[in-house]
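Morning F.,

Quick status update on the modeling queue. The single chain you submitted on Monday has been processed. Sequence for confirmation:
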Amino acid sequence: MRVKSILFILLAAALSGGCLHEELHPVDVYYTADVQGFYWSRMEPRFENKEAGGYAVLKNFLQTRPAPYLLFDGGNWFGSAPEGNLTKGAYVAELTKTIPYTAGSVSDKDLVYGWPSLRNTVRELPYPFIVSNLKLEGKIPWPMHDYQIRTVDGIKIGIFGLIDPQAINKNKGRLLGLTAQDPVQVAKDMASLLREKGVDFIIVLSALGEEQKDGVSDASLAGEVEHLGLILSANKDRENAETDTVNNTFIVYPGSKLDSIGHIRLLFDKNKQVREVKFEDIPLLKEEFGEDEEIASRAAALRADTRKKMNARVADMPQPVATSLTAESPLGDLLAQCLYKWSKLDGAIINSDSIRNALPEGRVTEYD
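C-alpha cells below.
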C-alpha cells in the first residue's frame, strides 16, 4: 500500500528526561470529505490507473482497522459528477447507512437543492450531523446537532461543526429562513462549552472552505480560538490531502472524490494531553481491500439509473449550435437566454469557460 505520511510532533517544555519514554495512548480518527458524487471505484491516474475509491471499498477498508476509532465525513456530496447531482443526495442515504460513521457535517454546496431536500437525506442516516453556526428561524435546524461528545479509551472528545456563513447568508431567497452565524464567535462559544463539560480534546468539522473575503479560514480560526485540537477541513475541492499546524491546532484536509481516506492518530499522555499526531493519506485501492458486495451492487444500480436519465431526450436540433472562447458564442447566447427566461431574472451572464462542448445536430440528451 502506498502511503503518504506526515508526522507532527508537539513537545511541551515539561517533556524531558524520563517523560520522553512515557507510554502514549492512541486514538485513531478517519476522515472523508468532498466526495462530490464519486461514490464508486474507478481507475485513478494518481494511483497509476489502479481502481480506487468509492463507499464499497471504504467499508472493506474499515473492516481491516482495529476498533475503536472515530470516523467523520465533511459533506460536499455533489460537485461536478452527474452521478451525484442527479440523485439529489439519494446516493448518500443509500450507500453510507452501513458505514460506521461517528458523525458528519455538511457544506453550503449540500444545500444546492434547498434545506428540505438536505433534511430528507440527513434524517435517513443513522449517525448525527453537526453544524453549530447554522440556524433556522433562530434554532439549530432539526435533525442537526450543535455538538457531540464521544469517549474513546477514556479520552473525552468534543465535536462541533462550522459552515461558510457568506455562502449561506447571500442566498436568503433560496435558503428561506436559514442563516449562518460568525464562525469565530461560535467556535469560541463551543470551545468554552465543551471544556465546561470536561472534554479532553476538541475536533472541529469545518466546511469554511477557502479563505473568505472577511479573512475567515481554518488557519485564522486556529489562530484566534484557543483549545481547538484538530480541524478537519472540507469544501476545498482539491485532489490531494493537505495538512497544517497553527498554534498547536492540527489542520487536515483529506482530498476530494473519495479515492483515499485521511487517517489521523492522536497520541495522548497519562494526563490526557496530546503529545504526538501522525497523519496518513491512505489510497482506497480495490485490489488491496476489495469491495463490499451489497454497497457495490447498489452503487452500480444507481449509476445505471443515472446513465438512463442522462440519455433522456431533451430536444432535437435541426443544426448544431456552436460555442467559442474567442468570439461571441451562439450557444452562450442561447444558454443565457434560457437562464433569463426560466429563472425570471433581470439579466443573465454565462462564463464561456463553463461551456465545454457545442450542442450536436439531431437528438440532444440530458447529458449534452
